[in-house]
Amino acid sequence: MPKHRVTLSVRIPHFGTSGKHWRRAIHAAFVKARKQGLRPVGATRVIARERRPAYRYRNSMTSYARLGRAQCAAVAYALALVATFTGSASAQPATNLPPCRIGFHAPLVSPLNRGAMILDYDAAKGSYKVKSDGDGLIDWVPAYKLRYSCVGADAKPVTESYFIGDWSLFIGPTPNKEIIDSKGYLVVGPGAHVPPLKINGDGSYIWVIDSRTTIRGRWRTLAANELRSGTKAPAILLINGEHGKNWEVWKTGVNQGNNRDAIGVERMDMGLSAIGTRLQ
């Protein structure tokens, strides 16, 4: 079979500081390759470094899963995983699957790469509460993540009114390159929670940037041809937001840890972004 060199770039959604999400996302990158019919045949190296604590990593593919939680948080964001694979067939979810229901054991939940028991279901949000077989951790996942085990119900459609309310924001760690002992490393910070964003039903918003800066502006609905790549309608535009730039806000589903509504906030002209969770 032909061999291909494939680079898997991992971009992690931010769910707070829990290391389980970083660890699972690294693992999910390999699972995705395998489901596409690709089989690893060579060593994979992961090279990264975290400033606090000052870990350095040079790990083979067989040992990456044994990284501790702090190490995974350093490695996961903007990480390149390079491997050699064989094959080209693409995997598809099986047909004639049973319906997803409370009490059903799903053999495979895609963000966990392992089985899980369905404990609860939120019909309005289309999210399922699952308990992982491996570590007993509990997450909320959409029906799409259960597609290899059962047929779930998707979230109900929403309108622009979904965005009205108060949102806590989290800015993820920003990776940068540093030369340490004549060797190049990725240096990744911890990320941070930032002041909240308030979106009002009258077309206005209030965005607290810091203790000295509060932006009061207007928002409007984005047309389908205005959406940034990878986002879906409905979405709104915060006009003249932080840095005087326009920012897109769109629905990302739910916070995996607490099932609250979640949004993405991203600058229109570049990749600066934050993850928002609805405040209660």
What is the gist of this entry?
With 280 residues, the chain is mainly β. 9% of the residues lie in helices and 42% in strands.
Model description:
The protein has two helices and 19 strands. It has 280 residues and is mainly beta. The chain has three domains: 84 residues, no CATH class; 63 residues, SH3 type barrels, CATH 2.30.30; 109 residues, Lipocalin (Beta Barrel), CATH 2.40.128. An eight-stranded antiparallel β-barrel has the order 10-13-14-15-16-17-18-19. A four-stranded mixed beta sheet has the order 4-3-12-11. The chain has a four-stranded antiparallel beta sheet with strand order 6-7-8-9, with no helix packed on it. The chain is globular, with a radius of gyration of 20 Å. The N and C termini lie far apart (54 Å).
Observed structural traits:
3 domains, SH3 type barrels, mainly beta, 19 strands, 2 helices, 42% strand, 280 residues, Lipocalin, four-stranded mixed sheet, single chain
Distance between the termini: 54 Å
Radius of gyration: 20 Å
User: Looking across the biggest beta sheet, what order are the strands in?
Assistant: 10-13-14-15-16-17-18-19
Question: Oligomer, anyone?
Answer: single chain
In percent, how helical is the residue content?
Answer: under 10%
- What is the name of the CATH class of the largest domain? Mainly Beta
Question: From the 3D coordinates, which CATH architecture of the largest domain would you assign?
Answer: Beta Barrel
Weakly predicted, low-confidence segments? 1-18, 40-91
CATH topology type of the largest domain: Lipocalin
Strand content: 35-45%
Major beta sheet summary: 8 strands, antiparallel, barrel
Structure annotation, total helices: 2
Please give the number of β-strands. Answer: 19
Order of helix and strand elements from N to C terminus: EHEEEHEEEEEEEEEEEEEEE
Quick one: overall form? globular
Task: Kindly name the structural category.
Answer: mainly beta
Number of domains: 3
In round numbers, the mean pLDDT is 74
